[in-house]
Design a protein that fits this description.
Largest sheet: 4 strands, mixed
Helix content: 25-40%
Strand order of the largest sheet: 1-4-2-3
Oligomer: single chain
Strand content: 15-25%
Structural class: alpha+beta
CATH architecture of one domain: 2-Layer Sandwich
Radius of gyration: 30 Å
CATH topology of one domain: 60s Ribosomal Protein L30, Chain: A
Length: 219
Amino acid sequence: MACMRILTGLLSAFVLAACATEAPRPLPQATAAPETVRVEMAYDMRDNGLTWRQLDLIASVAAEYKARGHGPLVISYPQNAQGADAAIAVIADARAQLYAHGLDWRAIGGGAYDARGRAGAPIIFSFTRYRAVAPDCDGSWPDLTQTRPGEAWPQFGCANAANLAAQVADPRDLLTAGAVDPSDAARRAMVLERYRQGLPTSSQRIDDESGSVSTAVEN
């Protein structure tokens, strides 16, 4: 009987050791991959200012960069091309427009590419954004009666990860946390001072925000 208890104890220890050394299987996750956005803009070599179409294109570039762009927004002009001087003047106007749309001057870079004498070579806007990559949910399931306790299956959480990849605003957030805006020091000091004086620290609400039930529909 004592031998049986010893044998049972040894088997239990062996099973526990095997479970402890086996690495858990990772669950499906949504991730992100970098990609380069490249937008070409034609220009008038006579330098008559930006057209409405160019203004709309620049506004679209600015909106996309502010929403999902990372790194510098590079504006490249065609080097060794007809009208290269006009392109530089157009880029100056484009930079002013990007600044007017809320971009920091420091986020806008410049560059050049070899147009090899080609006429009509465009101005190029380029920056990096991230593309969400969803896990492959094949829909097949293993025999759950034949699995070990604590084992993870690749199907568990796959739909949630796929939905997250489809809905995330900036896919780069899947790789690293976004920056947090600095706290409002003035607001914090005012709240602490009102707290010391025993005054309410929350913002006052108007009647429409009180949350009370309206009596307009009462009989």
